[in-house]
Amino acid sequence: MYDRKKKIEELKKSIDMDKLPLHIAIIMDGNGRWAKKRFLPRTAGHKEGMERVKEIVEVASNIGIKYLSLYAFSTENWKRPKEEIDGLMKLLVYYLRVELKNLNKNNIKICTLGDITKLPEGPRKEVQYAVETTKHNDKMILNIALNYGGRDEIVGGIKNIVNDIKMGKIKVEDLDESVFSDYLYTKGQPDPDLLIRPSGELRLSNFMLYQIAYSEFWFSNIYWPDFREEHFYQAIVDYQKRDRRFGGI
Ligand code: FPP
């Protein structure tokens, strides 16, 4: 018989804790298909997906991951039916309300990636409250990408750079990759070492385009609502077998 607990323990033991990825990014995909397979509405898939957010955030922080970035709502997701968007916003609010205590207890700081000024007022305020309340926590940074698009982020960064050049705050000659990074939502954070995308799709879908230049990719056919602790460990174990050369030899 399949012993899940044993499998989890074995996988956990095979992780080299001294070589953990500093930053893991996840494209949480497959909620809709998970629900469809069960003849459930898409929002049921998102609800189960939220349960996995709780689980993976806790697991990541427990094993010592320092940065976790989750793609929760893209700039393209506004094209979905209003009902589904409302459902996603409700889940976000619910998650933050229910989990805030836990996040604080686990010393997790919430940051956002994306232009949250475009979120409806209720969810926006809830997010701002969570960011404010957790701002002194320092065990793990949890980036929640909301109304996020990689291209939008890069174009927005360029606009701000041009403005700062006009205002004399920086000079064109001073602009390099490190300065440019300071104009992204991930300012001050290391780039993701590992990008996880479940659900069988093999694309980036506009997620962290600039930051992901040298990330290792881990794809799987599992839908996000089925993505458990053991899959997270497996991704790390596989990541640790990769030979990262960053363009060198
Ligand atoms: C992609 O699956 C998933 C999303 C667009 C939303 C992700 C949201 C959650 C996991 C729940 C709430 C998040 C937080 C942070 C509390 P899809 O709907 O595109 O799936 P499909 O490709 O199978 O249709």
Q: What is the CATH homologous superfamily assignment?
A: Decaprenyl diphosphate synthase-like
Strand order of the largest sheet: 3-4-2-1-5-6
Largest sheet: 6 strands, parallel
Number of helices, counting only DSSP H or I runs of 4 residues or more: 8
Structural class: alpha/beta
Distance between the termini: 44 Å
Number of β-strand runs? 6
CATH topology (level 3) name? Undecaprenyl pyrophosphate synthetase
Bulk shape: globular
**Uncertain segments of ≥5 residues (pLDDT<50)?**
none
Order of helices and strands: HEHHEHEHEHHEEH
The CATH architecture: 3-Layer(aba) Sandwich
- What amount of the residues lies in strands? 5-15%
How much helical structure, as a percent, in the residues? 40-55%
Radius of gyration: 19 Å
pLDDT averaged residue by residue: 97
Bound molecules: farnesyl diphosphate
CATH class: Alpha Beta
Description:
The chain is of the alpha/beta class. The chain has one domain: Undecaprenyl pyrophosphate synthetase. 45% of the residues lie in helices and 14% in strands. It contains eight helices and six strands; from the N terminus they run H-E-H-H-E-H-E-H-E-H-H-E-E-H. It has a six-stranded parallel sheet, with helices on both faces. Strand 3, helix 5 and strand 4 form a beta-alpha-beta unit. The protein is globular.
Features:
249 residues; Undecaprenyl pyrophosphate synthetase; six-stranded parallel sheet; binds farnesyl diphosphate
